[in-house]
Here is the input.
Amino acid sequence: MAIDSNFLGLDLGTSELKAVIINGVGEVLFQASASVASHYPFPLASEQSPHDWWIACQTVCQELRKLSSDAMDAIAAVGLSGHMHGATLVDEQGQVLRPCMMWNDGRSTKQCIELQAAMPEMTTITGNLAMPGFTAPKLMWVRENEPEILRVLQKSCCPKTIFAMYCVETLFLKCPMRRVLYGLMCDRANGLMSCFVQLDLTSLACQIW
Here is the structure.
């Protein structure tokens, strides 16, 4: 790419979407941000609407264009980053099934306790304690409280993946697609699968993006 090209960076954070335009030598040209609301429907729950991420993206891009339409027209590529461990559940058509359960959502504390009690060696296998921020306890909560969603669940996506889908209208990211049940990207997947077979949790298997 030519040195006179610009590049747009979008960072989806917990409370706001931040945007920056840099030039071909890495100098910051313009910046903008837009807040993203979290919702707390009941104690310990923390959710965001993925549609709000897209609205925030439109807002920051409009603001950047107001600052310099020339800088926006010179953008050659876009880079995305975003917070981790938010469980955004989608069906086979890529339709979002419910609000994103955020990384700081604590609703699955009971499920974590059940996991640790049923199989104490899980920590040795995964290298982590069972914590509400991870995906599998959240899926256990969904199974118990929203079974109609689990029946059509195809993928559990990190917020950045859904954000990218809104941008390009397809799940294009070349990231590892594994049937990882714990949401930890654990290298010992076979041992982890045996844990979930013993705990009768294999129905929670979905692709983690």
